[in-house]
Amino acid sequence: MSSSRSGPAVRPAAIIAVLATAGIVASLMQTLVVPLIGELPTLLHTTASNASWAVTATLLAGAVTTPATGRLGDLYGKRRMLLACIVPLTLGSVLCALATSVGMMIVGRGLQGMGMGVIALGISALRDVMPPEKLGSSVALISSSLGIGGALGLPIAAAIAEHASWRVLFWISAALSALVGVLIWLFIPAVPTRAQGRFDYVGALGLGTGLICLLVGVSKGADWGWASGTTLGLLIAAPVVFLAWGWWELRNPAPLVDLRVTARPQVLMTNAASVVVGLAMYSSSLIIPQLLQLPKATGYGLGQSIQATGLWMAPAGLMMMLVSPLGAKLSAATSPKITLSLGGAVIATGYASFLALSGSTGGLLVVTVIINSGVALAYGAMPALIMSGVPQSETASANSFNTLMRSVGTSVSAAVVGVVLAHMTVNLGGHAIASKDGFRTGMLIGCGAALASAAVALTIPLRNAAPARQDEDTQAALVKNA
Q1: Taking every pair of C-alpha atoms in the chain, what is the biggest distance, in angstroms?
Q2: What values do phi and psi take at 9, rounded to 5?
Q3: Pairing relationship of beta strands 431-434 and 425-428 according to DSSP bridges
Q4: For FRET with 395, which of 148, 194, 270, 401 sits at 20 to 30 Å CA-CA?
């Protein structure tokens, strides 16, 4: 089935700008409520534990729906699914703006999470509509939009929350989402689809169930207790569900995720590296904002406000935008796996610099800039490796699955670092807070994961694995230019 839209050809620059904007707006939703977390229990008359679902719901909805939207994009058109993702993104923002209870907020945040599929869809759409010589740099930029939006979201949200009603945050996000929808309609061309078959509803349900079990167990294990029946039950159920899901996918002629394609060495090792990169990069996102905001009385906290913290973190997001095209040039000159490995090494360097630079706000600024530069290199290289290893008919599905692998890594990172910080504490005014050694340990974990990602990346075999004859020219261009 294909979709089409008449009209003049659109310049590549406009396509890149629109898709990058879509990715940044979607990723903004991840950090949108961070400045409100402490106030949500009072604002919505609920407990802190219930309010924390406003963050968890977005993560879960994004992880569960992204693989499905990717497959639907392959089947029915990426432009059509980009527009479809904007609908829950906008409706969720409106619902959050009108929320009078924690239930409304959680549902709205879940709808916002469903819009996260625009990033993987946008990357995949580039393969269909961009000239080969611009593909590498544009893929790198769109892929990095996840980090750019996340970094910029905190200071913007903090400033708005401090100087206006918290509901303004969500009205602005609704307006931005609607604007992105209009831009996609006007500037993103439709391309005939190559994939055939039906949508795998059973596979989508199975993958979603397994992910919910895994991610809820991992993200809520610290609150519920890692030895509690609920946590253990979820973490035991997850691999059982995934095994059953894999059995179904291997026997389905039109699977949600073609596991035989994902088992190809180039795709498999890229996804493995993606998990570890996700684990590596998220440690700093959890630790550095806390360190900036802790009172100076601790001896290691820097006493910054939420808004100031966001401003200190913002340059790291901008650095990703600057580094992305450089990573694309490096991939074109060498190979994407070299860029991915270098990205892991740069991330590790940033974590190592923390040991010497953690005593000042300027020092932490340098740390975040180095780490995010590495993340930009890695995030730009991963889609290039994925797309050069799969048929064009499975581009969106494969990229969505790769995005999911990153999410799994960040979820595991949040759990691991959370346990470290919870157990390595000092007493301040009768309250237990994470100790300096706890922060250092968490950063060293990130450093180790980054070095592991660099090593895994070097094992990725580079060869054109896509079998479809019609893809040969595109694949050759990707290997050379991405």
Answers
A1: 68
A2: -65, 145
A3: antiparallel
A4: 148
| CA 415 – CA 412 distance, rounded (Å) | 5
Q: Which tens digits make up the pLDDT trace of 121-135?
A: 988 888 888 877 778
- The answer to whether 126 touches 15, Cβ cutoff 8 Å, is yes
The three-state secondary structure class of 425 is strand
Q: pLDDT tens digits, residue range 344-382?
A: 999 999 999 998 998 899 999 999 999 999 999 998 899
b (16+ CB within 10 A) / e for 433-450 = bbbbebbbbbbbbbbbbb
SS3 253: coil
User: 370: which residues sit within 8 A by CB, 6+ positions away?
Assistant: 346, 347, 349, 350, 353
C-alpha dihedral over 458, 462, 466, 467, to 10 degrees?
A: -130
**Nearest CA to 402 among 288, 269, 311?**
269
- pTM, whole model, 2 decimals? 0.83
Kindly state the DSSP code that residue 298 receives in the 8-state scheme: G
Structure tokens at 265: 């060495």
The count of other CB atoms within 10 Å of the CB of residue 360 is 10
The answer to whether the CB of 201 falls within 8 A of the CB of 240 is: no
